[in-house]
């Protein structure tokens, strides 16, 4: 079956199958196209004043990414012919046919690389005035140093020496100048009064704004009440219930007499509903230039991050990784990671040192607009590690961040980095096949800049990229599994930012625990440390309520080494401690096994017996000295 085709249909059939770069598909990993290292992007600018008569039937071809060639374009000529046809009053078709697609490359031998059949494009320095001036400009955002591809070899002649760490590490003078280095003082340094007062002010402001709309009155909160509220939440992370109201239930199997004695349930619920960290009335609107997805948290996390960095200098060994905060509600900041234990929640990029101290962090808020951020992993590493540049830190991360251009960048900033890497990344050598490596064997290559890549056979293949290791140095390590358990302020939150707020309270406790162990050399568990902070935060409220009741049903006394023990934060609280008569018991301060001393006086708040007489006053000494 034949069909008559005119010239236009023939041209359409000839060129409709020519693939374009935008429609083509590739399985190549483009994640290494780092703007700081890849070849500078070149912009072609054609002067408007130049004549395009000679180029109206030509097109620019860039075959080798270095030279630009001018080729005759049958497609453009076809479009020109169609344009002339439409402009022709008589409607006649031009007799001259364009060059066919086969003729386009007839004089070019692709296999041998012969470019003789192609006319080179004129450069800006060309003296031919009839051709347009083409300026090749480098993007100003790119670095001036061009990317140098690696040359991998087995040559390990360069000496790999251990970098000299040139920075202080550990606590700063802020911690060293504390009068008493106890858990609550360290926590108050990180989670300081500036944050507490911010919470008090913004909570009262939000309640006032709400009263203006609804007309419902409220009782203003204060610093002591906010501390008690946070202390109760910390304890709820240890003594977990399905709902916060269960702690106040009258049912004896769920009722918690300690928590319920600190605050009424309705007041706790009011604080939970009204607690705020920023003013909603001045929040920038969406799609404006200063819109911030983390506006509700911004003052809080800014102050907290500053406190984290002012009070502690990270160890030489640091690590960058991601942390997930579980959240299943609806929010644009929520991320979905199906291969992670916590699949839905907020992602936080973290820089943590060897001891587990969170020194720098960034909350990931997703893509900006419709554009997807390229080189996200490299950008995160550069941003988080910027404050530790030129100090010879040893930085470790996983294959999500690792790339060859990133390693060369970190090496130039005196950051010695190592990370696992996916062998499908760009600029990597060809290793032995997996089947040729036995358990414990490894293969390696080094480039001209002392960047090392290793492929090691364990139960699975493990690949590492490093800019400071020596491939010939080997050591033995012991395997270990995850250990320990950290309680946290876990609660169902209707407001998305509540999860991040309570998460960073837990982070402040962890950082305080790291500092406390380093400064006191005390091996205290995270649970006991958390209990001590919670008890200190609620101490003032606890003492005030017991003074009103005169005698509490709940005693703060613990049996410790066969003597009654009251926490210092309660014992030294300078309010409401009053003596009262009771049965004769052994003095909590001066009585010993060898010298037993009994007294009829006791403290109505501490609920411990104490000597009170003309010649001996254990009551005053017990409430005014650290050693009791």
TrEMBL record:
InterPro entries: PGBD (IPR029526). Residues 182-479 form the PiggyBac transposable element-derived protein domain. It comes from the Eukaryota. It holds the Pfam family DDE_Tnp_1_7. This is PiggyBac transposable element-derived protein domain-containing protein. It comes from Aphis glycines (Soybean aphid). The lineage of its organism: Eukaryota, Metazoa, Ecdysozoa, Arthropoda, Hexapoda.
């Amino acid at each position: 079956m034949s069909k008559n085709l005119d010239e236009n249909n023939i041209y359409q059939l000839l060129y409709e199958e020519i693939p374009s770069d935008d429609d083509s598909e590739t399985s190549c990993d483009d994640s290494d196209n780092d703007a700081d290292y890849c070849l500078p992007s070149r912009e072609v600018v054609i002067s408007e004043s130049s004549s395009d008569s000679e180029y109206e039937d030509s097109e620019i071809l860039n075959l080798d990414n270095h030279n630009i060639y001018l080729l005759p374009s049958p497609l453009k000529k076809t479009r020109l012919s169609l344009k002339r046809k439409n402009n022709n009053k008589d409607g006649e078709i031009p007799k001259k046919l364009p060059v066919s697609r086969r003729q386009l490359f007839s004089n070019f031998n692709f296999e041998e690389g012969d470019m003789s059949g192609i006319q080179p494009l004129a450069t800006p320095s060309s003296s031919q005035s009839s051709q347009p001036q083409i300026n090749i400009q480098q993007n100003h955002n790119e670095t001036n140093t061009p990317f140098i591809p690696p040359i991998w070899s087995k040559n390990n002649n360069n000496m790999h020496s251990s970098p000299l760490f040139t920075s202080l590490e550990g606590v700063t003078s802020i911690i060293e100048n504390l009068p008493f280095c106890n858990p609550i003082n360290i926590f108050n340094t990180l989670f300081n009064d500036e944050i507490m007062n911010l919470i008090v002010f913004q909570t009262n402001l939000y309640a006032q704004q709400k009263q203006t709309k609804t007309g419902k009155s409220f009782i203003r909160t204060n610093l002591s009440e906010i501390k008690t509220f946070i202390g109760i939440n910390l304890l709820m992370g240890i003594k977990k219930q399905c709902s916060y109201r269960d702690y106040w239930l009258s049912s004896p199997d769920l009722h918690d007499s300690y928590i319920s004695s600190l605050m009424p349930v309705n007041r706790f619920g009011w604080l939970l509903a009204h607690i705020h960290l920023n003013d909603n009335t001045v929040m920038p609107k969406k799609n404006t230039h200063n819109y911030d997805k983390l506006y509700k948290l911004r003052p809080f996390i800014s102050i907290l991050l500053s406190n984290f960095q002012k009070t502690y200098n990270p160890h030489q060994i640091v690590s960058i990784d991601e942390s997930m905060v579980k959240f299943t509600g609806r929010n644009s900041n929520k991320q979905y990671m199906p291969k992670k234990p916590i699949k839905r929640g907020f992602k936080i990029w973290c820089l943590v040192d060897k001891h587990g101290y969170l020194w720098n962090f960034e909350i990931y808020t997703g893509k900006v607009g419709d554009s997807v951020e390229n080189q996200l992993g490299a950008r995160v590493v550069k941003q988080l590690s910027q404050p530790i540049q030129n100090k010879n830190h040893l930085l470790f991360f996983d294959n999500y961040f690792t790339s060859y251009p990133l390693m060369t960048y970190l090496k130039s900033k005196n950051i010695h980095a190592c990370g696992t890497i996916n062998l499908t990344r760009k600029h990597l050598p060809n290793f032995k096949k997996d089947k040729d490596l036995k358990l414990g064997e490894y293969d390696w290559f080094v480039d001209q800049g002392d960047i090392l890549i290793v492929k090691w056979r364990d139960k699975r293949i493990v690949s590492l990229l490093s800019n400071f290791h020596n491939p010939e140095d080997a050591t033995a390590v012991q395997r270990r599994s995850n250990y320990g358990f950290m309680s946290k302020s876990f609660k169902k939150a209707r407001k998305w930012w509540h999860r991040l707020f309570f998460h960073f309270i837990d982070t402040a406790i962890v950082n305080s625990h790291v500092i406390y162990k380093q400064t006191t050399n005390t091996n205290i568990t995270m649970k006991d440390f958390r209990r001590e902070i919670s008890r200190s935060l609620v101490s003032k409220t606890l003492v005030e309520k017991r003074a009103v009741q005169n005698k509490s049903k709940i005693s703060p006394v613990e049996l410790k080494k066969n003597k009654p023990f009251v926490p210092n934060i309660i014992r030294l609280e300078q309010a409401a401690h009053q003596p009262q008569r009771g049965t004769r018991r052994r003095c909590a301060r001066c009585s010993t096994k060898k010298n037993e001393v009994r007294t009829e006086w006791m403290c109505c708040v501490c609920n411990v017996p104490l000597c009170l007489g003309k010649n001996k006053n254990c009551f005053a000494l017990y409430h005014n000295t650290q050693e009791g």
